[in-house]
Amino acid sequence: MKNVSRRSAIATLSGIAALGLAGCGGNTDSESASADGYTLVNDGQLSVVYSNGFPPFEFSTDDGSGTQGFDIDLITAVAEQMGLECNILPTQKFDTLVPTIKAGGKADVCISAVTINDERSAEIDFSDPYLNSNQALLALATSTYASLEDFDQAGNVLVASAGTTGQTWGEENFSQAEIVPLDDYVSCFTGVSSGLYQGAIADLPVAQYLTEQSYKDLKVCVEVPTGEQYGIVVSKDNPGLTKAINEALAALQENGTMDEIKIKWFGTTEGL
């Protein structure tokens, strides 16, 4: 089926080795974790939830046995910097991620291109920002759409990944077009490609990656300067962990690892 072939194409075209479901890193014991001022679901492990289908941030490996992407590389490096093993848990729907961290007990953190905003910050804590982003409006490459007004027409159905800031932005800014949330970006792009929907709203880095790598029949028609930043999601009950993650992010920026990961997945560090 078309959706399956698109997923395969994404993984094949990435050409980058998978990290798999579990990252590398030195173990630590419960005493050292306690001394660092934070708690973990499992001693010596940083347990991570995410949502698959967000290339190049999180998506399946070519054989389907694991997960790869910018966020997976980054959180693995963060765990290693903290002296922990990175335990990547099974994928979840995006709109369940923040509630999972808020509820506690399953995972220590979430990383999944989650935009820092006031609504989410009322429920959970964020790390310092690790990437900049805007929104994008996409349509078929043969379309003549070139403005927000072109998309916001009665009868147009625009899709966005459920629970994302793209969905929120569309609902707040479009009065004529219908905004429909889908499970992930791959489903959104496949629907537009097949002609089922007139357009999609997506984070710009995802839109650029997918239109360059797999969905070449689509194009970014409009870039929306929303000025978003992504952060790692942590429970408000675990401020010591947020502090430790921020220290790890700062160290990765200082030692060049952050730029290496950005170049690997985006080919540049400019604007990110």
TrEMBL record:
Name its cellular compartments.
Cell envelope
* Molecular function (Gene Ontology), one example: ligand-gated monoatomic ion channel activity
- Entry-linked Pfam families: SBP_bac_3 (PF00497)
Q: Which InterPro entries match?
A: Iontro_rcpt_C (IPR001320), SBP_3_CS (IPR018313), Solute-binding_3/MltF_N (IPR001638), TAT_signal (IPR006311)
Keywords (alphabetical) are: Signal
Against SUPFAM superfamilies, the record matches this protein to: Periplasmic binding protein-like II
> Per the record, what is one GO cellular component?
cell envelope
Q: Does the keyword field hold Signal?
A: yes
Secretion signal span = 1-22
Q: Which residues form the Ionotropic glutamate receptor C-terminal domain?
A: 45-268
Note the Gene3D superfamilies from the entry: Periplasmic binding protein-like II
Report the superkingdom from the record. Bacteria
Q: What is its main location?
A: other
Assigned protein family:
Belongs to the bacterial solute-binding protein 3 family.
Supply the name of the protein.
Amino acid ABC transporter substrate-binding protein
Q: List the top taxonomic levels of the source.
A: Bacteria, Bacillati, Actinomycetota, Coriobacteriia, Coriobacteriales
